[in-house]
Amino acid sequence: MTPTRDMLEVFENQFPDRDYTIEITCPEFTSVCPKTGQPDFGTLVFTYIPDRTCVELKSLKLYLQKFRNEGIFYEHVTNRILDDLVAVLAPRKASLTAHFTPRGGISSRIISEYIRKM
Amino acid sequence: MTPTRDMLEVFENQFPDRDYTIEITCPEFTSVCPKTGQPDFGTLVFTYIPDRTCVELKSLKLYLQKFRNEGIFYEHVTNRILDDLVAVLAPRKASLTAHFTPRGGISSRIISEYIRKM
Amino acid sequence: MTPTRDMLEVFENQFPDRDYTIEITCPEFTSVCPKTGQPDFGTLVFTYIPDRTCVELKSLKLYLQKFRNEGIFYEHVTNRILDDLVAVLAPRKASLTAHFTPRGGISSRIISEYIRKM
Amino acid sequence: MTPTRDMLEVFENQFPDRDYTIEITCPEFTSVCPKTGQPDFGTLVFTYIPDRTCVELKSLKLYLQKFRNEGIFYEHVTNRILDDLVAVLAPRKASLTAHFTPRGGISSRIISEYIRKM
Amino acid sequence: MTPTRDMLEVFENQFPDRDYTIEITCPEFTSVCPKTGQPDFGTLVFTYIPDRTCVELKSLKLYLQKFRNEGIFYEHVTNRILDDLVAVLAPRKASLTAHFTPRGGISSRIISEYIRKM
Amino acid sequence: MTPTRDMLEVFENQFPDRDYTIEITCPEFTSVCPKTGQPDFGTLVFTYIPDRTCVELKSLKLYLQKFRNEGIFYEHVTNRILDDLVAVLAPRKASLTAHFTPRGGISSRIISEYIRKM
Amino acid sequence: MTPTRDMLEVFENQFPDRDYTIEITCPEFTSVCPKTGQPDFGTLVFTYIPDRTCVELKSLKLYLQKFRNEGIFYEHVTNRILDDLVAVLAPRKASLTAHFTPRGGISSRIISEYIRKM
Amino acid sequence: MTPTRDMLEVFENQFPDRDYTIEITCPEFTSVCPKTGQPDFGTLVFTYIPDRTCVELKSLKLYLQKFRNEGIFYEHVTNRILDDLVAVLAPRKASLTAHFTPRGGISSRIISEYIRKM
Amino acid sequence: MTPTRDMLEVFENQFPDRDYTIEITCPEFTSVCPKTGQPDFGTLVFTYIPDRTCVELKSLKLYLQKFRNEGIFYEHVTNRILDDLVAVLAPRKASLTAHFTPRGGISSRIISEYIRKM
Amino acid sequence: MTPTRDMLEVFENQFPDRDYTIEITCPEFTSVCPKTGQPDFGTLVFTYIPDRTCVELKSLKLYLQKFRNEGIFYEHVTNRILDDLVAVLAPRKASLTAHFTPRGGISSRIISEYIRKM
Fold first, then answer.
1. What is the value of ipTM here, to two decimals?
2. Distance CA F50, CA F92 (A)
3. Residue of chain A nearest C31, judged by CA positions
4. Which residue(s) pair with A113 in the sheet?
5. Mutation to test the C interface, candidates B100, B103, B107, most C Cβ within 10 Å
6. Considering the entire predicted model, what is its pTM?
7. Catalytic residue among A33, A51, A54, A83
8. Can you tell me the distance from the alpha carbon of D35 to that of B68, in angstroms, rounded to the nearest whole number?
9. Which of C9, G46, I73, I100 could disulfide-link C56, Cβ–Cβ 3.0 to 4.6 Å?
């Protein structure tokens, strides 16, 4: 079963008048390389300024776990998770940084950002 | 007994002509998750530019201890403490960062800021 | 497919006259908690004094990856992997340490050792 | 409600023929100083060689949480928790180290050990 | 004997045509809390762009040592030392950061800045 | 055989509408000093905002390995690798930082940047 | 007023049947060099196995503070504090380690131990 | 023999069209305090954007070694080395940071910068 | 050209009456995997008690550099270098530890020891 | 002027009945390589159990500074300083560890020990 954005639950932001930042760190992310079939491991840091809703942490955990056996490239997984979170939360601002462990002596970090157009 | 802002004592700022910054770090904050009833643990960093008053540290410690058995979400506790401190101190600028320890492999940081309107 | 010890390949130890130590660290181990169905994450350190054979690293990697969707407790997985490696390598001495990331604020380390009887 | 040892659940050790070590780290321990009424904070490390049973981690977490509003000195809490765990587990060997955060510029560590008499 | 700014000696800045920065770190600052009579400990970092004079380090050391038995609050001692140094040096820019060790689980940092008016 | 830019393979960027950053770290770079014939060792960090293509990591690894027996100065190797990557990727922005280990007690870091002209 | 051992208060050890260790760390020790009159700064670590009594931490803090203006050499202060603690506690075993900050580029550590004769 | 700028050798910058940065770290700098005759120890970090020439590292090492028995103050040595390097290299931009080890519990950092006038 | 032990030069130990230890660390070791043709990178630590001779460091560096393009397994290279050094130095005791960087998420350490038979 | 052991001053050990340890760390040692004429840099750690005398720290500092322009190999300087300190102090036990910074990518540590014969 592939992860879909409707797995992400939200709750109401009780401080919508203030711009404040929520940063969520998940050092236990794992997916599968679509080319080699080998597992990849990384740390995700999701940062956002909520508008009307905040993401519920348990649903986020379950959503991220669904990538466990999903074949997907570093660049795609980072942008796709950011897209899903932005679609569900409609935040004022958001970014996702994914840091993947070394393969063949080379490690990667993908940093993707979303800023709401006025 | 729930923590209230009248527990916070202040003393006179003796250098009101200068904008300077006071940063207070409390690595021993604990409250209770309202959903699961389990204790949460975090580190609070409160930073402000005082105007006429500074917060007295012992009263701040006692105020923060009152959250020990209080059921409250991460986002709310961070904004509520900032609101209480701003109400009592009327600072020129203030921010509160709360870093909570991992639950289910996920840790959170809430960063909230106040800037006085001119 | 469950991991079995016949996945582990060996090569001949070319220095059997000397007692020397091989230490292998795998920070990307993951399995599944049989109780909650949630993924567990850990770092394995396997140390041994080879007798006639050494473990081939790529086969060890593939063997460990097979635990990815296996429901198994911390204590069992540690002892089972040690048993498999000892059965295949017949080393003079061996130990396996598994360090699991925190759950509910508690982290665990299991340290298991094998010494060949004379 | 005061914590009692009957809160601690156990499960069967499936490798009783081997002496192996289980180390459990809890950085979120808190109790109350009986003299000042102020909260204390510490990190507990419990290490043991199981005989017939292992401690179930969730029950250990709930047992430790019960000290949250318990007035008890550093030395007593360390020895009492060790006594409770030894009574319930009857381990071959066990130790408990408790590291408490600084008060008045002084921090403390209590290290208590149990070795089964033959 | 209370510390006074005439204890601070200066020497001529030989590079007055260039804006450069001097940063001085003193991790061995100690004074006394005027409320409890207990000693406080901190690290001072003084940074400045010299104009015509630089502070002589030995005289600065002796001046800071004079706070050893002086009863004074965190906020005041930081601003007072900055005022003394600014009065003696007339620097183009200066700042003093004082980081005090934890009391009751809470540590403080005071950051004060001086910018010469044109 | 000297490394050439045609060794670098690319794949299509699937998120060309968004400016996002890819950072690649290679701590295992080695080349040869053209003056002394001695090996040099360094860590490369390549960061870029992709336009239509991303660099394929395995081809990058093989390209960098070709410098192993190449006699080339620090400054040249850094700028040459950046030039090759920019020529192949035509990124919106790119930088290469190379940190070389100490020789004669002195270590070096070269930081080179490319910004696409509009 | 010079520090004397009668300032040290004790309380009854409630676990006299067990050999356990108490380690107390004080990073805020300061005294005065008898030769130069300059303040010295150090960290003390006192470790002991209690017999019938444990040292009360607040009285220990006040006793150590009394060295603040006391002129005494590194070697003497370490052995003298150990002697005072041994005289008051009659522990089964005790040690005191004092680590002093650098003077003229040289730092010192004094490690003194007491073992009760049977 | 006192160090002079004619000891510094240069080589041609092969990438003059690009603004890039070269950072050179020397943790083994030593000179002599002109007041006390005692040796001083520090770490120098020299950063510059080259124009037509780069500094040859071996000649820089030999030049810096000449300060070994030179009596010179922190502030002067930092500005003098920067002046020498700027005179020889005519860089687009340059800075020198010198971090000296503690004396009497106080350490110093001097940060000096050069920007070419257009 | 393959590395041979006659490249290693020695000089006379001037303190043969005393057992003392020499530890040499080389974080810049590289060889080639004979299976994949890919470069391996590691840190070597050689420790020995000299008898009549010590190894000259420059000759050791040149000897180790000869492995740069040599296809050899981790276990073999470690034991072979130890054998070469023991043959040339005839030390009282010696050990070689080689720590190789991760491949496929797995890193290795080989620890080999030599003790002279009496 | 070459350093000689008569530069080392001692003072009376006031606790001769107890075996205690004094550890002295000097991170600012420098001498000259007799082969290349280049300066060497290292950290010395001297540890001893005093008998009737202790070494006076200022005289030790001045003695070590005399190696500044002395051409001497790593192994010799370590053993020579230990010999001088043992000759002057006649300690019950002593050791000297010297850690030298990397040259050509290789760093060294020499560990020499003295135990008094009964």
1. 0.93
2. 6
3. A68
4. A95
5. B103
6. 0.95
7. A33
8. 18
9. C9
